[in-house]
Design a protein that fits this description.
By secondary structure, the chain is an alpha+beta fold. Helices cover 34% and strands 30% of the residues. The chain folds into two domains: 2-80, no CATH class; 95-186, Alpha-Beta Plaits. The strands form two sheets. Strands 8-5-7-6-9 form a five-stranded antiparallel β-sheet, with helices on both faces.
Length: 188
């Protein structure tokens, strides 16, 4: 079990298949209404308190679970105030990647979507001359997972709303929404 405090209210917990077995849970069996899931979360929070001094001061928790490739899962546990009506997701700003080769773009986008779609808030695709620019809004920019993955296939050319606005102004939109999903679904 790997525990990483992201903020005073949020912790990331990576569970291996063995961790999940010892907690007597599987990704498919996670359900807030079952006693087993609640017990597992309590054990995880106790471990987070013991090893990482994670002690949220609020009573309500939001637990987000994402499957991992080797049978484990990653949990994001966020403590919320009783006055919070709903959790607020704050995606990072846009990050732009340049692809000079369409086949490489298709391969990278498809693999990114199949492995990390839960880490991307939204995506779009633009073309300037014969070059393609993939814009992603990663949810994990602090961890650098999706950005690191895409840098194996393309060059990161910029980030931020201003850079993206320039791209929108000078580029031709190919897919303005859900580019990763559309490429993966129709082109791969």
């Amino acid at each position: 079990m790997d525990i990483q405090i992201l903020t005073g209210r949020k912790v990331k917990v990576t569970l291996t298949r063995e961790d999940m077995s010892s907690l007597n849970i599987t990704y498919d069996s996670l359900d807030e209404l079952t006693a087993q899931t609640r017990l597992a979360v309590l054990k995880i929070l106790a471990e987070a308190k013991r090893t990482a001094c994670f002690q949220p001061k609020y009573n309500k928790l939001i637990v987000e679970a994402f499957p991992e490739e080797r049978g484990g899962c990653t949990l994001y546990i966020t403590a919320i105030d009783d006055n919070d009506s709903e959790p607020k997701v704050s995606p990072a700003g846009p990050v732009v990647f340049h692809f000079g080769d369409m086949q490489l773009l298709i391969e990278a986008a498809s693999k990114l979507f199949s492995q990390y779609c839960h880490r991307i808030y939204k995506s779009s695709l633009y073309r300037i001359d014969n070059d393609y620019f993939l814009v992603i809004y990663p949810l994990d920019q602090a961890e650098n997972i999706t950005i690191g993955f895409l840098q194996e296939y393309a060059q990161k050319t910029g980030e931020g709303e201003i850079y993206c606005a320039m791209l929108c102004e000078h580029g031709t939109p190919v897919m303005e929404e859900n580019a990763l999903e559309m490429i993966s679904k129709f082109l791969y």
